[in-house]
Amino acid sequence: MTELKTSTSLLLNIEAIRADFPILSRKVNGKQLIYFDNGATAQKPVSVIDAIDTYYKNQNANIHRGVHTLSQEITVAYENARTTIQKHLNAKHAHEIVFTSGTTASVNLLASSFAKKNIQAGDEIIISAMEHHSNILPWQQLCEEKDALLKIIPISKEGELIIDEFEKLISNKTKIIAVTHISNTLGTINPIKKIIAIAHSKNIPVMIDGAQAVPHTAVDVQELDCDFYVFSGHKLFGPTGVGVLYGKEKWLNELPPYQVGGGTIKTVTFEKTEYADLPLKFEAGTPHIAGGIGLAAAIDYINTIGLEKIAAYEHELLLYATDALQKIDGLKIIGTAKNKVSVISFIVEGLHPFDIGTLLDQMGIAVRTGHHCTQPLMQFYGVPGTIRASFAFYNTKQEIDEFVKTLMRVINMLK
Hints:
Blueprint: H1 14-19, E1 27-28, E2 31-32, E3 34-35, H2 46-59, H3 69-89, E4 97-100, H4 103-118, E5 124-128, H5 137-146, E6 149-153, H6 163-169, E7 174-180, H7 192-200, E8 206-209, H8 221-224, E9 228-232, E10 243-247, H9 249-254, E11 265-268, E12 273-275, H10 289-305, H11 307-325, E13 331-334, E14 343-348, H12 353-362, E15 365-366, E16 368-370, H13 375-381, E17 386-390, H14 397-414
Parallel strand pairs: 3-15, 5-6, 5-7, 7-8, 8-9
Antiparallel strand pairs: 1-2, 4-10, 9-10, 11-12, 13-14, 14-17, 16-17
């Protein structure tokens, strides 16, 4: 790969951006931290930290139930956060945004609620070979419980879905398709709009796992026409423990609640309960109020920079790092799709990823090693795991240079 002719880094004030992230100034093992594990979780800007701090210092109360001032103030703030997320995804209605504890909870919610009304013995569910365990296990468990069949979209060695094979998997027993927007391990950007169009031509709903997509690209759920879209706040520079399930109004109205309890009801008697309207029927108990507010603050922050600028800059980092890593003898990149985001998984011949990752950490560089919650994908490539470097818009080419130099030193130490 070659570097972009026009440097998109000129469009971003990287020094000012890095100053917004306090953790980037710390040292690890006596070295300046280089954080290349953004695929696992992203760092948080001061504006997000301040929003959470303000809630607990000045606004702490429960929502929706209180008549006192604090409760009413924070209810408005929390519902405004929902509206911020609605607008960010271009959902048609704010009540199509359901707060959860993260992507994993969102997929489990959908799998459980969808199955109650729509899955019978012999039915089929389609996922892909590059899914995160969080988008495998809920469907796998569901198929075991219902005696349904889980079908897998195959991938090429480059790490791209084989769409012709996907179409062959669809039958009149296919009830839902659940695929990742962007692979957390390979960085592959999947053709989800095409997948959705194919599915809808056969009246099959589609859920998209957007955990790795929302930090890197703009998502328009109406333009995509997906039925469900899920993601986590912590990968989008927001707090941990909060996430989103977007669902089209008609689907959410049809699905039964996943968990029940306080907040999910209109009326309760010992004989019968009437559940609340959307989205509250899916939001049992006291939610992660600070998380919702912090997630909205994170969205506001990235929108002040601009997702187009972020995507362009991160692509520049991807090209730069790919070019540098390909020059290292014995290093092989796993996942070479034509369309991908700033994630690079690689192995080094004769060396275990854990050993490399451990030594890099001793030198202040944070990468992820292992199977990345994609064990079937590792089996496909015939490797125990990879080293994964995943970049965000606060990373720099200078950090990549230091990473590559240190990696070469580590390789020489281990050989």
